[in-house]
Each structure stands twice: as structure tokens, then as C-alpha cells.
């Protein structure tokens, strides 16, 4: 009888031990599954953080690229403006050089015109003495010399009498009534006018037929 009780106790212990092993075996997959789930969540969280960091870096790079593109565009515009200003300056300088070459004698001619007027009035003087005639010949030589110098510089007298009145070249100060001329024709020159190539230095003072 005692032996039977001991066997029963041993069997109970074995059963209890087997039950404990079974429970432990059942708990292990649950723990492994929980650890796997936790590890997966950590991995996803890390991936999300990495993605956020990458997105932030990409956004920062895009903003930097846009800023650089804007700065480049501003510099290109500034360069184009500078180039345009330089081209205008070069054209203006070239035009000024051409004008100086073509019309550089205008100022000197303008200052000499009053002297030419005096020569012309002197030549219209009525002298009878030999000394006066000799002096008048010298004045005429100087006058013709100045006119020749003017011609070499491109300065010419404006045509007047018999020409149609031109407000750009003629300054009408009087009107006349001469049957020999048509209307609006210059019939008398009161003061000579001069032009340098295509530029009028001084318009001729004229009388125009009605």
C-alpha cells in the first residue's frame, strides 16, 4: 500500500513537470512573437525617422537650389544690363568720335564768321586810291584763303538768291515783290549763311519774294 502511494506521488510529480514544460513551451512562442513585433516596430520607426531625415535633407537641398537659381538669374540680369550699358557707351563714344572728326571745326568756324562778315563788308567798300585798292586786294586774298580753308574742312556757303526758301537754311527777315521771281523764292541775300556738310552752322539771312 505504501508503495502504491509513492508511485502515485511520483506519477503526479512527473505529470506536474510535464505540464510545466508544456506551459513554458507555449509561453516561449508568445514571448518570441512579442519580441519580433517590438523589433519590427522599432525597425519601422527607425525607417520612418530615416525617411523624415531624407525628406528634410531633400527639401533643404531643393530650397538651396532654388536660391542659387534665383541668385544666378539676378547675376545674369545684372550682367545683361552692364553689357547693354557698355554697348550704349561704346556706340555713344563712337558717334562722338565720328561727330568730332566730321564737325570738329564747327566751333572754330562759328568764331571766324564775324571776321568773314567784316571782310565781306570791307570788300564792298568803294575805294579810288591806289593804296586803298592795294589794301583791298590784300583783304580779298585773306578772305579767299579763309574760304578755301573752310572748303577743305567741309564748310560751304549756303546758296540763296534764286533758290526756293528753305527754313532749315534760310532766315527770312524781309519780304519783297519781284516779278522776275516766283513766290517763295529768295530774291536777296542780306547775310551769308554757312553749313558744315549736312549741318547748318548759321542760316543765311534773306529776303523772300511774296
TrEMBL record:
Keywords: Chaperone, Cytoplasm, Stress response. Residues 41-55 have a biased composition (Acidic residues). The keyword Chaperone applies. It comes from the Bacteria. Signal peptide: none annotated. Residues 1-60 are annotated as: Disordered. Its main location: cytoplasm. It is found in: Cytoplasm. InterPro entries: GrpE, GrpE_CC, GrpE_head. SUPFAM superfamilies: Coiled-coil domain of nucleotide exchange factor GrpE, Head domain of nucleotide exchange factor GrpE. Residues 1-19, 31-40 have a biased composition (Basic and acidic residues). Participates actively in the response to hyperosmotic and heat shock by preventing the aggregation of stress-denatured proteins, in association with DnaK and GrpE. It is the nucleotide exchange factor for DnaK and may function as a thermosensor. Unfolded proteins bind initially to DnaJ; upon interaction with the DnaJ-bound protein, DnaK hydrolyzes its bound ATP, resulting in the formation of a stable complex. GrpE releases ADP from DnaK; ATP binding to DnaK triggers the release of the substrate protein, thus completing the reaction cycle. NCBIfam families: PRK14140.1. HAMAP family: GrpE. Belongs to the GrpE family. Homodimer. This is Protein GrpE. It comes from Pallidibacillus thermolactis.
